[in-house]
Design goal:
This protein is an alpha/beta fold. The protein has helices at about 30-40, 55-60, 70-75, 90-100, 115-125, 170-180, 190-215, 230-235, 245-255, 255-275, 280-300; strands spanning about 20-25, 45-50, 65-70, 80-85, 105-110, 130-135, 135-140, 160-165, 185-190.
Length: about 300
C-alpha cells in the first residue's frame, strides 16, 4: 500500500486502476493527462482521439497515447474510463456521440470549466443506463494551448473540482476521485451550480478583467507605449493570452454568474473613482491595503 501526496482521504492504490483509458481531445489538457497517466502507470493502455492527423502523429511520437484514433466512437470502444478533454461548447455533443459505443459500467468524466449545463445534459443522456458520468474540473492549465505545451506534472498538486449530484452513483464518484488522486491532485467535492458560481469569481472574472486591461492599455496605437510596459503589466495581463475562441465559449456558458461578478467589480471601481475625484488619499490607501490583504488570504493555502 502507498499513499499519494495530496489525498483528502487515504485510498489504497493499485498499480493499474484501469484496463483502458480513452482521452477524447489531445490539446493541452488531454495531452498532459496522457503523459500523467503514463508516468503514474494508472492504465494498461491509454488511447486518444484527435481530429487532426498531425496531432495524432505527434501524440504517438511523444508517447502521450498508445493508440490515436480519428473517430470518437472507435476511441471509446473497449475503454472502461473516458475523459472528455474538449472545449465546453462541444462536450455535450461528444457525450451523445460516444454513448452508443461505451462498455456497460464504463465511467465518463470531463475537464470542462463550466459544469451545470454539462452535468445536466450528461445525466439525461445516460439516464437509465449502466454507463455513469461524473463531472470534473481540474484547476490547472496555462495561457498556452495545444499538444506542444503538454506537461506530465500539470495535474500534480492541482485542485480538481468533482461535481456530483443526487443522481451520481457512489461507485462512479469513488472511482473518479481515485483517478485524479493517483495523478497527485487534491479532489474537492462541490455541486455543479456552486462550482460555476465560484469559478465565475475566481477564474472567469480575472480573465475578463485581464483582457479588458490589456485592451485599455493598448488602445490607440498599442505598440506606441510597449516600451513602458513592465513586469506589472505582464503579470496582470498574462492570462489575456488565452485562446479567445475557447474563452468565448466558457464565458458564454457561465454568463449569468459572470455578470454578477462584473457588476460587483463595477461597484468597486466606482468607489475608487469617487475617491480619486475627491482627492481622498486615505480611501485610495484603504483600497490598496484591502486588496493586498485579500490577495494574501486567498493565496495563503497555495503558498504563493
Amino acid at each position: 500500500m502507498r499513499y499519494h501526496k495530496g489525498f483528502d482521504m487515504q485510498i489504497k492504490i493499485k498499480k493499474k486502476l484501469f484496463n483502458r483509458v480513452a482521452i477524447i481531445g489531445l490539446g493541452l489538457m488531454g495531452a498532459s493527462l496522457g503523459l500523467a497517466l503514463k508516468r503514474a502507470k494508472t492504465a494498461q493502455k491509454v488511447v486518444g482521439f484527435a481530429r487532426r492527423a498531425e496531432t495524432r502523429k505527434k501524440a504517438l511520437a511523444k508517447k502521450i497515447v498508445d493508440i490515436a484514433y480519428d473517430r470518437i466512437e472507435t476511441a471509446v470502444q473497449g475503454s472502461d474510463f473516458i475523459v472528455l478533454c474538449a472545449p465546453v461548447s462541444v462536450i455535450s455533443e461528444m457525450i451523445k456521440q460516444c454513448r452508443p459505443c461505451l462498455l456497460p459500467n464504463a465511467i465518463v468524466t470531463d475537464v470542462g470549466s463550466v459544469k451545470t449545463h454539462i452535468v445536466a445534459e450528461a445525466e439525461m443522456v445516460f439516464a437509465g443506463g449502466k454507463v455513469e458520468f461524473v463531472g470534473s474540473h481540474p484547476i490547472a492549465g496555462s495561457e498556452q494551448h495545444g499538444l506542444e505545451a503538454a506537461r506530465a506534472d500539470l495535474y500534480e498538486e492541482a485542485i480538481v473540482a468533482v461535481t456530483p449530484t443526487r443522481r451520481t452513483p457512489k461507485r462512479a464518484l469513488r472511482i473518479v476521485r481515485q483517478f485524479w488522486q493517483t495523478l497527485g491532485s487534491e479532489v474537492v467535492l462541490v455541486s455543479p451550480e456552486v462550482h460555476d458560481r465560484i469559478v465565475a469569481r475566481t477564474s472567469h472574472l480575472p480573465h475578463m478583467i485581464a483582457a479588458l486591461l490589456a485592451g485599455c492599455v493598448g488602445r490607440e496605437r498599442a505598440g506606441k507605449h510597449g516600451k513602458f510596459c513592465g513586469a506589472g503589466f505582464r503579470d496582470t495581463t498574462r492570462i489575456a493570452e488565452g485562446d479567445p475562441e475557447l474563452w468565448r465559449d466558457i464565458l458564454g456558458k457561465n454568463a449569468c454568474f459572470l455578470m454578477e461578478e462584473l457588476e460587483a467589480f463595477e461597484k468597486e471601481l466606482k468607489h475608487l473613482l469617487a475617491g480619486l475625484k475627491k482627492g481622498n488619499g486615505r480611501q485610495i490607501e484603504k483600497y490598496l491595503n484591502r486588496g493586498r490583504k485579500h490577495r494574501r488570504q486567498l493565496l495563503a493555502k497555495k503558498g504563493t
